[in-house]
Amino acid sequence: MKPRLLFATTNAGKLRELRGLVGDAVEVVSLEDVPPIPEPVEDGETFEANAEKKARAYAEASGLPSLADDSGLCVDALGGRPGVHSARYAEGGDQARYQKLLGELQGVPEEERSASFQCALCLAWPGGESRIEVGRCEGRILTGPRGSHGFGYDPVFFMPALGRTMAELTQEEKAAVSHRARAFQKMRPVLLALQATG
After folding, report:
1. Which residues contact 44 (CB under 8 A, 6 or more apart)?
2. Is 94 tagged catalytic?
């Protein structure tokens, strides 16, 4: 029987990404697959603090090793905002959030629109042990959206090395270069050990 890993999210996009990255080694279940667990308040000042708080809470409540991420977009011209508030940056959906961002960056020249997607992943066990890995993806913010894949700020996040936005990448391409993928690759040995101990 494959070990089960609770990925503490209800975000279908994130869940799809992680399942694609893990393959068949571990059975990844989401918050929708377990009895309701009160959602921890994400009040940390860093991605790492929020990821760890969530992972520990869900591991204790579910009795399963739990993986939680906190990630977001940090724009240099905005002093690192939206940062840990990326998901709550504006009322409404993804489009409302990136449109607010574009509005705040109006008039900022291209060379000053540098940004990075950052992700902290925390894997916590019911006994209290935890491990954190971080990943980063560098780019810049365009003046308008491009592409129809991905979610969040992907349509306005341009990667010069690839000549495309995150939303113009296929799922496979994104899985190779995203901030979450980079954090996950660092976590892979720990997840493989989880598989070995079953």
Report:
1. 50, 52, 53, 70, 84
2. no
